[in-house]
Write a structure and sequence with these properties.
Oligomer: heterodimer
Helix content of chain B: 10-25%
CATH architecture of chain A: 2-Layer Sandwich
Distance between the termini of chain B: 95 Å
Structural class of chain A: alpha+beta
Structural class of chain B: alpha+beta
CATH topology of chain A: Gyrase A, domain 2
Strand content of chain A: 35-45%
Radius of gyration of chain A: 16 Å
Number of strands of chain A: 11
Largest interface: A-B, 52 and 58 residues
Order of helices and strands of chain A: EEEEEEHEEHEEEH
Number of helices of chain A: 3
Largest sheet of chain B: 7 strands, mixed
Distance between the termini of chain A: 46 Å
Number of domains of chain A: 1
Strand order of the largest sheet of chain A: 1-2-8-11-10-9
Shape of chain B: elongated
Chain lengths: 186, 981
């Protein structure tokens, strides 16, 4: 185990979390990520028993999840495994596939609210996607304030925004500004 | 006071506001214009060119005259239309475009010189002497031009943006819009209803008609309440849909807090991009006037507006309550104003109608077959001259309502080159074919002007839209409403000698149009530019059709033969702040921070923007007062010991697959498929046209796994091009790509002591030259088990490495390297020193790879392999490109104290400074601590054969000339011994 101490994408020792009315934005620092791409002629594997979702989909099972990123490509997530060599673990689960470590390529902000309408109101200020089309179990890549992000609707009450790690500060600023501006009735 | 009874104002609350320093009172529901009128204020501003006294002319966003500077200090906003400025307690406004008090404008002198300010004045005058234009005329005109003045302070307010999606967007909340929204809302469609006004209802609020025996505002309120109760309906008051864009996207500005004295925590405005499957344009119609002599005095206004002030705002149009009001109308609708005025107890002089058979709709004096052809009144209307049957008579008159017919607001239908068509029955342009797909005009905007027709049209438009969307529409019973046809005459202006204003905002008169006709500026486009008609904030909403009619009369053509007025976005003015729609200053755009950013910040690094990145430029130490001191020290430290630089910004692309080598062979000009595992190769990419595109390294980690690096600037574009090649050019290849730029923190460890430093952090890895030679790469662990990648590559020309770790550990790795290298003199260095080191080594960077250079020019001609094809390879050998004989050289000043200036061009000594004698240019320059003088790189004709030659580097723009010697581009270690050591 290395004796180097990691920092978060926002440059701190611990993950940032802040409440904005009924919304909570929490930085997720322990989410491991690796991309999985099929090679020519390969069938989709079922890493960790997970059925990889179709276009626009997100699927989860037992702490692992995956969302579709392009034809024959997925991003696989694993909670609590960010400091491991998760790419190697995934490689073992999906032999023959092209696997690339992506854990620190991204910063993930989990936005939660008891009210789905709050998440949707927030989305309206952030991305040009119809909230009605981003239902539970879907994911999409889109532009957000000139940044490229993945949006994952994990549940009615949870929306994950995944952006480039080096843009973490700007992404937080954008999310926090929009959340703070939402009217209390949203 | 001319406040009347009734109206849709809240008399229980009183607001105090100031206009030109004087305090007045108004009520919630008032606009600034209505409150001023209710206080007997007719004079609200001065005209653009002649500084004529002007009063409010309309009751909506089409207002040409009553523009004010609203608010004070940094929040002051010029050219705000008083007719749409919602009154709030404490509102402060000032009239604009006058020198001295509004009543005694010194520039009113211009009016005396009106004959000199005719159409085309600017184009014809100030032609000589030519030298006077820039120094005298233009500054003078610019000073006099414009209307309101900016505060010149930073805008303190916040602006927002957002995205909305719906089945149906209803633009306009009047009779047609409400009926449409109600139909679609009840049918379950997702509806957005937007109206620029702060109250829904449109003209229903301005008229005295009944709906089902009740005042129309009651139905409006009930309908609004029902719409608000629908979860599938969103209603947006104070929201102007200003433009139609591609794919059913509509631009809209919501004035969130313009009606508040201080927005507090709220944003001031929000820019909405609305994606609508269908839209209904129910924007109503704008009344036009009838030009006649001196028709611009305060008190002369549109008859429909007068009706709105009386009915909605309970504001009389006159200066004094007992002043009589007259109506000049060429249609029946104008007569209604007289009826409504009388109902409110306003004295009515009568209705002047040019139609001999004008109807008598009520108990008022009718001047049939008559016209108003002159007025009097210095700062406000005092009398009008009515000419009937050849006899003229003056009448005392405090206000005149002018009704020249209604123009459907077709603006948005012409945003996609849709052309309105002339309707001879309506005497107006109505929406034509070919406008924005999915936009359905309804109500008065489609020429259905009566209340009943507008509502019916709204329902039908909604049903049509829903049917297209396969949504079953429910029936919407409508209230009984007036359905009177408004008969009108094609009477466009009153001929006469005096100046008859057509466009009030730009002071364009009938005479100006006649002059434009005489000078052959007859097409409407020429007319507009010659006279300035239809320009500025109102975009000629009340003027364009009248002008067209006058031109048609002069040209003896019909109106449609004369031309068609079309419109571009925005429908009304949109502030740049809301278009920017977000942050200013440091957060204006996203900033990428390197993994060691926070560490560098703690070291007091000075940062520089490099594209979206913030990079450490240099690390000043105590006592260093000039950046050069820091940079020289950093560069020397690398050459003498070891330096650390965060190079995470370089693009990194993971390339895997059975055909990865072949893919890279086709991508790079040089061979990559033969690269051994564990090795790195410098690579050059060309553009399709054969020019050099990007350089970087390619490392082979395993048989089917490469890591490509790109320049910082081209990280995105190169990755995009690679994806294009993978997906579109060579989809038969088994290749998978993904960017890993952000995933790995990469630190350059450069200098003769770099190996010694790295040996202190690697876990059981042999770094000796034999085990890990120049251009080697490896996956290894460091610091007790952290996975890392090590590349032995050098940008500085020294023994050097780049080490990559998962980005979260970049900060800690930098700290560890600094700690472990203290005794080795380890020094962090920034982009400035990085630049110095690479110029000293003669490495090309962005200034050399600028899209105009070839591999041969860079001295990399042999990297374009003859054994295989690659993007741009064949084109690089084409005639005209292959013969370019400019070559990259080093340049050193003959006098070491001189400075080599990048951008300077190279000339032979004594040669003229011209394109013909130009021999090349300097691309990069820096002070080299190694050489002890300024040095540069540049491209020079036959440069590789001109070593030792003396040239002149000239910068004629700043009068600089430096004698330079042509030397090798490699100022440091030209044999390349150090980096292989």
């Amino acid at each position: 185990m290395t004796d180097l101490t990691p920092i978060t994408a926002l440059g701190a020792e611990t993950a940032r979390m802040q409440d904005f009315g009924v919304l909570r934005i929490a930085e997720s620092t322990d989410l491991a990520l690796a991309s999985l791409s099929l090679r020519a002629g390969q069938d989709a594997p079922t890493p960790f028993g997970l059925t990889l979702p179709d276009a626009g989909g997100w699927a989860s099972q037992d702490g692992q999840a995956a969302f579709w990123t392009a034809p024959g490509q997925w991003m696989v997530e694993a909670e609590g495994r960010a400091v491991e060599d998760f790419a190697a673990a995934l490689k073992a689960e999906a032999p023959g596939c092209s696997i690339t470590e992506q854990t620190d390529g991204w910063v993930t902000f989990e936005i939660t609210s008891e009210r789905a309408t709050s998440l949707e109101a927030l989305m309206q200020k952030l991305v040009n996607l119809d909230p009605a089309c981003l239902s539970c179990g879907t994911a999409a890549r889109t532009g957000l304030e000139h940044m490229s992000v993945y949006l994952i609707r994990r549940s009615d009450t949870c929306l994950a925004v995944m952006g480039m790690r080096t843009l973490a500060d700007s992404l937080w600023h954008t999310l926090a500004t929009a959340a703070a501006r939402l009217p209390s009735e949203a | 006071m001319t406040r009347l009874s009734g109206g849709l104002i809240d008399r229980d609350t009183t607001f105090a506001f100031r206009f030109n320093g004087k305090t007045y009172k108004g009520h919630p529901g008032d606009t600034l214009a209505s409150a001023l009128l209710a206080n007997g204020v007719q004079l609200m501003g001065r005209s653009f060119k002649y500084h004529r006294p002007r009063g409010v002319f309309s009751a909506g966003s089409e207002e040409p005259n009553a523009m004010v500077e609203l608010r004070e200090g940094a929040r002051k906003e010029p050219n705000t239309r008083a007719t749409v400025a919602e009154l709030y307690d404490g509102l402060v406004a000032r009239s604009q475009n006058h020198v001295g008090p509004l009543k005694y404008d010194l520039l009113a002198l211009n009016d005396l010189f009106a004959p000199f300010f005719a159409a085309g004045f600017y184009y014809k005058t100030f032609m000589w002497p030519r030298a006077f234009w820039e120094k005298l005329y233009e500054p003078m005109i610019r000073n006099a031009a414009g209307l309101g003045r900016l505060s010149m302070e930073a805008d303190p307010d916040a602006y927002d943006k957002g995205f909305l999606h719906c089945d149906l967007l209803v633009i306009g909340g009047g009779a047609a819009g409400l009926a449409a929204a109600l139909t679609a809302g009840r049918s379950g469609a997702r509806v957005i209803l937007a109206d620029e006004d702060f109250q829904f209802g449109g003209r229903l609020l301005a008229e005295s008609h009944l709906l089902d025996e009740s005042p129309a505002p009651e139905w409006v309120a009930k309908t609004e309440e029902e719409l608000r109760s629908f979860p599938n309906v969103r209603i947006l008051p104070r929201t102007t849909v200003f433009g139609v864009y591609d794919h059913g996207i509509y631009g809209a500005v919501e004035r969130v807090s313009d009606h508040l004295a201080d927005p507090g925590d709220q944003v001031r405005q929000t820019l909405w991009r609305i994606t609508a499957k269908r839209a209904i344009l129910a924007a109503g119609a704008t009344e036009r006037h009838i030009p006649f002599a001196n028709n611009d005095r305060p008190g002369v206004m549109l008859a429909g507006a007068m009706r709105a002030y009386v009915n909605r705002w309970a504001a009389g149009p006159t200066h004094k309550a007992d002043d009589p009001v007259a109506i000049f109308a060429n249609n029946d609708d104008g007569h209604r104003t007289a009826l409504d005025l009388m109902a409110k107890g306003v004295p009515v002089l009568g209705v002047i109608d040019p139609r001999a058979d004008a109807p008598q709709l009520g108990d008022y004096e009718l001047f049939a077959g008559a016209v108003v052809d002159e007025t009097k009144g210095r700062l406000g209307l005092s009398s009008i001259r009515v000419t009937q049957n050849g006899k003229s008579q003056w009448h005392r008159c405090g206000a005149l309502g002018v009704a020249g017919g209604w123009n459907p607001n077709v603006h948005l239908t012409s945003h996609h080159r849709g052309r309105p068509v002339w309707d001879e029955t309506l005497l107006a342009f109505v929406p034509g074919q070919g406008g924005p797909s999915g936009l359905i005009p309804a109500g008065a905007a489609a020429g259905n002007g009566s209340t009943a027709a507008a509502m019916k049209s709204g329902v039908e438009a909604a049903k049509s839209a829903l049917e297209q969307l396969d949504i079953l529409s429910v029936s919407t019973p409508l209230p009984k409403a007036e359905d009177d046809a408004s008969v009108q005459a094609a009477f466009w202006h009153v001929p006469g000698k005096g100046r008859a204003w057509v466009d009030f905002q730009n002071d364009v008169t009938v005479k100006d149009i006649a002059l434009a006709h005489k000078e052959n500026m007859r097409p409407v486009e020429h007319l507009k530019r010659w006279t300035t008609l239809g320009m500025a904030t109102d975009q000629g909403k009340t003027a364009n059709i009248s002008a067209l009619a006058v031109m048609a009369e002069l040209a003896e053509k019909s109106i449609p033969e004369t031309g068609t007025t079309i419109f571009r976005p925005p429908y009304t003015g949109v502030s740049l702040s809301v278009l920017g729609g977000g942050d200013t200053g440091a957060d204006f755009r996203p900033r990428r921070l390197t993994p060691t950013h926070h560490w560098a910040k703690a070291q007091d690094a000075v940062f520089v923007e490099v594209g979206p990145w913030m990079r450490a430029q240099y690390f000043p130490r105590p006592g260093e007062v000039h950046w050069r001191e820091s940079v020289d020290r950093e560069a020397k430290a690398v050459r003498a010991g070891v330096g650390l630089c965060d190079v995470t910004t370089l693009g990194k692309v993971d390339v895997q697959g059975a055909d990865a080598g072949e893919f890279l062979n086709r991508l790079y000009s040089n061979m990559m498929g033969t690269l051994a595992v564990g090795k790195v190769r410098y690579g050059l990419m060309l553009r399709e046209d054969g020019h050099a595109y990007d350089d970087g390294t390619c490392a082979r980690l395993t048989e089917d796994h490469y890591v490509v690096t790109t320049t910082t600037a081209n990280a995105g574009p190169v990755y995009r091009n690679m994806e294009f090649a993978r997906q579109c050019l060579w989809s038969e290849l088994d290749v998978q790509l993904i960017s890993t730029t952000d995933a790995w923190a990469q630190i350059a460890v450069a200098g003769p002591k770099s190996r010694a430093l790295l040996e202190r952090i690697v876990d059981d890895f042999d770094l000796s030259n034999e085990a890990f030679p120049f251009m080697g790469c490896a996956e290894l662990t460091i610091c007790g088990g952290l996975r890392a990648r090590l590349f032995r590559i050098s940008f500085s020309g020294e023994l050097a490495y780049e080490i990559a770790v998962p980005a979260r550990y970049g900060h800690a790795l930098m700290e560890r390297l600094m700690e472990k290298g203290a005794d080795l003199g380890v020094t962090p260095y920034g982009t400035e020193a990085l630049g110095v080191l690479r110029i000293e080594k003669g490495h090309a960077a962005g200034a050399e790879l600028n899209g105009q250079t070839t591999a041969q020019m860079l001295g990399l001609g042999r990297m374009v392999s003859q054994k295989k094809d690659a993007i741009g390879a064949i084109m690089s050998r084409r005639e005209g490109l292959a013969e370019d004989r400019r070559r990259l050289v080093g340049l050193k000043p003959v006098d070491p104290a001189s400075t080599v200036t990048p951008g300077a061009h190279l000339f032979a000594e004594g040669a003229a400074r011209s394109m013909e004698t130009d021999q090349g240019w300097i691309t990069s320059a820096a002070f080299s601590p190694h050489v002890g003088s300024s040095i540069g790189l540049g491209f020079l004709e036959e440069g590789d054969a001109r070593m030792g030659e003396i040239l002149v580097a000239a910068n004629p723009l700043e009068g600089q000339e430096t004698r330079v010697e042509v030397v090798s581009a490699h100022f440091v270690d030209p044999e390349g011994v150090r980096l292989r050591d």
